[in-house]
Each structure stands twice: as C-alpha cells, then as structure tokens.
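Question: what's this shape?

___
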Amino acid sequence: MSWKTGFRSLYYIGAPEPDDPVLVPGQTAILVIDVQNTYLERPDRASLSPQEQHRYDLWTPFHERMHGTVIPNTARLLALARQNGIECLFARIACHTKDGRDRSLSQKMPGWNNLLLPKNDAPSQLVAELQPAGDEIVVTKTTDSALTGTNLRLILHNLGVRNVICCGIFTDQCVSSTVRSLADESYAVIVLEDCCAAATEELHRKELEIINMIYCHVMSSGELCKIMALAK
C-alpha cells in the first residue's frame, strides 16, 4: 500500500488519491521534533521493583523502534537533506528557568507529561545521533507545538520555506500538535511514518490516521526520497 492510500481514517475512505507534492529543496525544510536524551535514557532493569519492571517492559517496543528505525532513518534523511540544499531544523522541549515556572500548563500536569527540563541540562539536549550541523537552527519550546511555543513561524517565513517535513516524537503529542499548527498557517506538511514514534505502535498508527489527508500527508522516508529524487 502506498502513501496515497495508506493511513486513511473513515473520513477519507474512497477519497481521490492525492497528487505527488512538489517539493522544491529551497522551499522545503526537515523538522526533527523532541528527540532528546530524556526520552531515550533507561535505568538498569534489575535495579527496579516488579511494578517498575512492568512499566519498563511496556516501554521496550518504543525504545526498540527509536534505536532500530526512527533514529537511523532520520539520520539518513538529514544527511541527504544537507547534500541537497534542504534546511534542517530541530525543536526540543526545555524550560528557561531551573524550576520550570515558564512551562506551559500541559507540561506542569501531574503524571508522565510533567516535564522539568532546564535548557542547559543534559536530559533536555538532542540525542547524539541527531545533532544539528553547522549553523542549523534549534528552537526551544515550552509547549507541545513547535510553532506555538517558539518563533519558528517567523524563522520558516524568513527562510522562504513552504513545505515542512516532520519527524520525531511523540506522534500523538508534540508531532501532532506541531503538524496542526503548521497546517493552520497554510504550510504544506508531510509526516514521515518511519521517522516518528509514539509510546505504542497502536497510538502511533491511530494518530497518523487522524492527521493524514487533512493536516498533512503521511508517507515513509523512502517514498519521500523517491518523490524528491534523493538517493537513499
């Protein structure tokens, strides 16, 4: 199944197949969202309680997908983009204060999403495999959407970008929020399904169905490279 017919929700069953997007390198940017140390670090499983070990095991498929699929595919895509004059940008969650008082409400809620990531601390940094090169731009956001939480809108405008290709985590949270914000600003958005992950494969696939065809087009990195004639 190709990107033209895949990841369709009930809303788009039977809808016409979209045309291939026209992606001029100078008007196109790769945006890597929130692939940060805090999400990839894991404790020693043997040191955990049985309850903590159960939670650890539930997250194992995510970590396997990140290390086996998402990070390698994104790294290859960044290398190709740099060779072909495509802007590479990065977004990360971090706060400007040590106590996180500048965070958005969604990042102060109790539970897993209660994020305290001071901007200079190691957990908030991008993972080693997906570091920016040269003067590539990194925006620091205190909310889920990379557009709402930063001056990324102005940056994209100044760069002459009209097409944004999104990668990163989490598909159903910051990736989705960013995609929706970009779509509302009339950017043409592509989400690369094999360069993204959610906590579970079910959440990942379901969110892609939700946003596909209305806020973005969902495709694989291989399909994108074919459309843009990038060697992969």
Summary: Residues 49 and 111 are 19 Å apart (CA to CA).
